[in-house]
Amino acid sequence: MMKNLLLSKGLPSPCGKSRNELTETLLREEYGFLPEAARVSGEILSVEKNFCAGKAKLEKINICCEGSFGSFSFPVSFSYSPNQKTPCFVHINFRADVPDRYQPTEELIDSGYAIISFCYHDVTMDNNDFRGGLAGVVYPDGSKGNRDCGKIGLWAWAAMRVIDYLCTRPEIDTSRICVVGHSRLGKTALLTGALDERIYCAFSNNSGCSGAALSRNKKGETIEKICGKFGYWFCDAYKDYANRESELPFDQHWLLAANSHHKVYVASAEEDLWADPDNEYLSCVGASEYFEAEGKKGFVHPDRLPIAGDCFHEGNIGYHLRSGKHYLSREDWQLYIRFLERQ
Ligand code: GTR
Question: Which of 16, 144, 238, 265 is most open to solvent, judged by the fewest CB atoms within 10 Å of its CB?
Fold first, then answer.
């Protein structure tokens, strides 16, 4: 039944293509090409030794990047237990606060994880102005070419620089670095995962249109709607696919397939109809064969559409559908941890 649903959408298959070909297509047609990597160093601005009543340390760090385009720095918050080497989440967040309503920091520490987070606005503002922050450094006159990356690409670039820095920290088990983001930042987490080999799992929370969800026959937000309001998240060429989804040479399951060098996780919320939970799920189904062609378990799921409470943690594509609205909740985090423990 699920296979037939997918076939009826006429999806281009990612199989037979290398991961590079997948990411090349996604960058050229959708997100745009990112700036080159940079030399990264961390400048510790402050240390709170008794964070969470002494269970953890909280450091504020400036991530300093020296690239061929110039230099740029942005602040991050790093919470970790000083007594053990732990896995770490890189959280691309809407706010710099720690803890935050999207980041239950103490609970993550108690579960044996460190977390490093930054506010996406500290990289570059979420608007159509390319003159400020990283955008202003990379695009000196504030204008960019048709295939240059939009803001999602710049936020993903910053997440990779945070990983560069994390890899220098002895407190972290660098074989267990995960990236997490919600909604527009879930799209960003999936792109970061596609581009970065060092990640263990990329978690997309309610990322929807131009994130985890297939674009063909999509309900709720469409390419036309997202480009109308948020065209600056993408490369300029992407808007040409508005109302021409069937002509896309790829679909969003390629973004999940491009994460096949590690694990990828898609979290949906039942009432998040703008994101289209069914198309997020079908994207996992569509990406599964790419993982399987690499000899890995892909998406292990029943032959039906999802219902709230479903949680599929057996394969390298993890998934859950929780009840409720568009949000990055404690429940989502707890399921992420359960998935990681199971793996
Ligand atoms: C919506 C947008 C979605 C999603 C969301 C968010 O307005 O249309 O694609 O990214 O914002 O980031 O909260």
Answer: 16
Residue 83 has φ and ψ, to the nearest 5°, of -95, -10
CA distance to 126, 264, 284, 331, 333, per residue, from 203 (Å)? 21, 6, 13, 14, 10
Ligand 1 centroid to residue 209 C-alpha, Å: 8
**For 108-198, where are the E strands, in sequence order?**
114-119, 172-182
* CA–centroid distance, residue 189 to ligand 1 (Å): 14
- Residues 275, 181: Cα–Cα separation, whole Å: 14
Please name each of the domains of the chain with its CATH number: 2-342 (3.40.50.1820)
Residue count of the chain:
343
DSSP string across 212-232:
TB--TT--SS-HHHHHHHHGG
Residue to probe by mutation, ligand 1, list 230, 271, 325, 326, most atoms within 8 Å of CB: 230
